[in-house]
VOC family protein (Nocardioides islandensis), 259 residues
Amino acid sequence: MAVFDTYTQGTPNWVELVTPDQRGAAEFYGALFGWQMVENPLDDGHVYIVGSLQGDAVAGITFQLPELAGHPAFWNVFLAADDVDAVAARVGPAGGVVEAEPFDFFDFGRTARIQDPTGARVGLWQPRSTQTVRANEPGTPIWNELLTPDIGRASQFYSDVLGVSADTHPVPWATVPTYTTFSSAGRQVAGVAPVADGALEEAPPHWNVYFNVVDADESVAQAEALGAKLIVPAYDLEGTGRMATLTDPHGALFCLMAG
């Protein structure tokens, strides 16, 4: 069991699905991960769905704004900010863009939407009542990873804005000799991997969320039976575990990791 009360700045502390079909998505992820779904009525007539395990919040499922009509669903990753306004003020001078200025998301927390200098979008989250309480166990987020064409530039940006440190480690993988991680308060909190220039049209810079499962192959089969599409078949990554990449029935990309 892994329960978290607080997160140091720069640590992913919330993930949120933006989808045109909240209840359909709730059925899919509820069946796949065993989440219990709580619908929270909002002042604007919508609901905000929180997926939980054993009463502990894991992730959010929100509605799609009208301007995103026709856009595939997608997972947002949020990084902890001690003071969203202060962090957002550092984004522009560091070379990024504040796409959504800091605002209160009802009583859940204060947030902002930013884009780093390499094009990856990510949220800032200063929680009030809601954050990922349960993580790093089956059915919960276990890892978050930035895919970027310029690891050095991205690393400098997140260091300047959020104070994380970037470290490069040798890895036993055949595809790449090293892997970069972000650390906050001495703890590794996210990974950074390259996305090749030629792949940018199909996979622009973005943040991925990995959900832990007991058996990657069984979870892939279950997800496909529920309507998901397999993008990267399950494979073993030495020293890390077995993982796969899928899209949910409405197009949102997510990753599974066992081990």
User: Anything to note?
Assistant: The chain has a mean pLDDT of 93. DSSP finds four helices and 16 strands in the chain. Residues 149 and 197 are 6 Å apart (CA to CA).
